[in-house]
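Hi Y.,

Following your request, here is the sequence exactly as I used it, all 278 residues.
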Amino acid sequence: MRRPTGKSALAGVMGWPVSHSRSPVLHTHWLDRYGVDGAYVPLLVAPDRLEDALRGLPALGFRGCNVTLPHKEAALTLVDGVTGRARRIGAINTVTVREDGGLEGDNTDGFGFLESLRPAGIDIARGPAVVVGAGGAARSILVALLDEGCPEIRLVNRSFDRARSLAHALDGPVTALPWVERTEALAGTGLLVNTTSQGMVGQPPLDLALDLLPTDALVTDIVYTPLETPLLAAARGRGNPATDGLGMLLHQARPGFRAWFGIDPTVDAALRAAVLAA
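Below is the corresponding structure, written out as C-alpha cells. Let me know if you'd prefer a different format.
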C-alpha cells in the first residue's frame, strides 16, 4: 500500500457513521493498482457539520469526495452545481472540486447499476422491467432505466402511496402497482430488480413468487451481503440469469475515481475479492 505524500491527490467518503463503508478499500485498491500518488480516507461528519466539511474540501487540498448516508439528499442542496441525473434523483453521492473551487455534485448509483448488468448482455429497451421498492436506491435505478430507454417499468412497493408518488414524480412510463399484484406484475418482463433490504443478512427474504416470471428474464438484487440472496438463489434454481449487488457498488465508484485521480479504473475479480474481504 502506498503512503500519501505532501503532493498526494486526496479524496474520501463522508458519512455518519462511516466506519462500515467499503469505499476506502475499493479506492485504495485502485490507487495501489495504478500506482497513483493519492489517498482515499473515511471522513466522519455529523449532519450539522456537513456544509462546513464540504466547503472545507478545497482548502484541505481534496479533489472531491463521496457522500453516503445520511448525507446524500442534504448534500444536493449544499453544492454549487449538480448533474441532470442527480437533480432528477434528488440526491448526490459524488462531489468533485472544480478548478474554480466550486463543488459539483453527481449521482453515480444508476450508472453503477447499469454497468453491473452489462456482462449479462441485457437490452434494457427490449421489454418491461419490474422494480421492487420505492426508496432512494429505487429512484436512482428508475432514472437510469428511463434514460436507457426502458419502455415500461412496473413499480411495486408495500406502501402503494409511496410507489405512486414516486411514479408520478418521474417523467416516463412508470406504473405503480399494489403489493398484492406483485406476482402478476412479473408476467412478460425482461428484468426484475429488488431495491429493498429484504434478503440482506438479518432481514427476511423478499416475499415474491417467481412463477410468472419468464425464464429468460434477468434477476438482480442490490443487496450484496450475502451475495447470493434467497431471491437470486430462487431465480437461478428455475433457470433465470441472475446478478448480485456487488457490481453496482463497484461500478458506481468509477466516475469519482476518474474525476479525482484521472484514470478510468477496471472492475475485475481482484477488486471484488478485496472488497468482499474487507
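The chain has a mean pLDDT of 96.

Thanks again,
Q.
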